[in-house]
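Protocol step 4 of 6: structure prediction from sequence.
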Amino acid sequence: MRLIDVVIPNLFRNLYTIKTLCLCASVVITNFSRAQTLSFTEVDKTSYRLYTEQKWDSLIDYVLEANKAGIDYYYLQARLGAALYEKKKYRSAAFSFQKALKYNSSDIYAKNTLYYSLLNSGNITASRYLSSKSEYIKSSTDSLGYNKMGFVYLEGGVKICNKKEPLGNMTYFNLGLRHSAGRRITFYHAFSYLGQTKHFQDIKQYNYYLGAWIQLGVNWKICPSAHFFWINTSEQTETPPGPPRPRLRASTANEQAFSLVLQRSFRLFDIGAMASYNNFDSISAAQLGGYLTLYPFGSNVFSATTTVVYHTRKMSAYQTIFKESMNLRLVKFLWLTGEFAYGNEQVQFNPEAGFPANNSLDPNNYRYSILLTSPISKSVSLYGFYQHEDKNENNTNVPYTFNSLIFGLKIRL
C-alpha cells in the first residue's frame, strides 16, 4: 500500500482536530499580540478616559487586561479601586488601594478611600487599625463617629426538646457588650444564662465569655477568647411514695474553654487556623481546625465558609466536624446567614450573638441554623435565630432533637 493512501485519509479524518488546534493557536497569538501592542501611554490615556466617563465595568476589564500585560502603577490601581468602589465591590476595592499605596504610600486619596472600603465591607477592626496609622483619617472620621465601636446585644429564647421526659426544655438569655480598646483591639463580653428542668433535676448554667479581635495589620488579625461556666444542679433522690418527701441534693461544677484564631485576608477570600482547649465534664479535650471563606463578588453581599475541625475526644463516632455556612444579603435591609454542621463541635470560634458554646457531652449527629438580621433604625438591628440539633444521649445512645428559637436586639451606643 502506498504511503499517500494511508496519510491522506487520516488527515481528513483528523481535520476537525487540526482546525480546533489552529483556532486555539490563533486565540493565543491574538491575545499575545494585543498584550504586546499595549503601551504605558495608551493604557494611561484609555484608563483615564474610562475613569472620567465613569464607565466602571469597562475600566475594570481594561485595567485587568493591562495588568496581565505587565503594566501597573499608582494611578492605574487607584482608578481600578475607584471603579470597584463605585460598583460596591468594597472588598476588592480595598486590595486595589492597598496595591496603589505600595507605589505611593503617602497619598491621602488612596488611604482615605481604603478606609471607607474596609468600613463598607464590614471589616471594621481593619478600618480602625488603618485610622491609627493616619492622623488625617483619624481626625476626619472621628468627627463622623465612624470609629465608635460600642454595641449592646440583648437576646433570649427557648430550646425545645422532643423528649420532655427525661430531658426537658431550656430557657436562654444573653447580654453582650462590644467595645474598643484603642484602635487595634475590640473586645466582646457576654454573660448568658441557660436553665433546664429535667426529670428529678434542675440545672442552672451561667456563662461568661470574653473575646478579642486584635488587628496585627490591615489583612492580619488574631482572635483569642475564653469561656467560664458555673453550673448549679439540684437533684431529687427518688423514694417510695408517701412521706418522707424526696431529699434534695445539690452540686456545682466549673468548666472552662479557651480558643485562638489566626486569620489572613486576601482579595477574594479569608483563610484561618484555629485551636481550642476545654475541660468539659472534667475531661481535657482540644479542637484543631481551619476554615476558608470565599467572597466571589469582591464584597460582603455574599460569602461562603467551609470549616473542618478535628476533636481529640471521641464523641460517639464523630471526631471530625464539617461545617458549611453562607451569608447573603437578600434585600437592602435583610441579611440571611445559614449553617449546616456535621459532628459535635463544642467550642464555636465566633460566638458573638447566639449560643456561645456547646458544653453538652451528648453527641451532635448534625445541626442546621438560620439567622435573619434587619436594621430597624440607624442604631438598632433586630435578629431572629432558629437552630435544629439532632443528638444522642451520651449514656443511653437514645436519639432526641432540640429546636431553638431566639430573638435579639443589637444596639449601637
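Step 5 (inspection) to follow. Residues 1-13, 24-36 have pLDDT under 50 and may be disordered.
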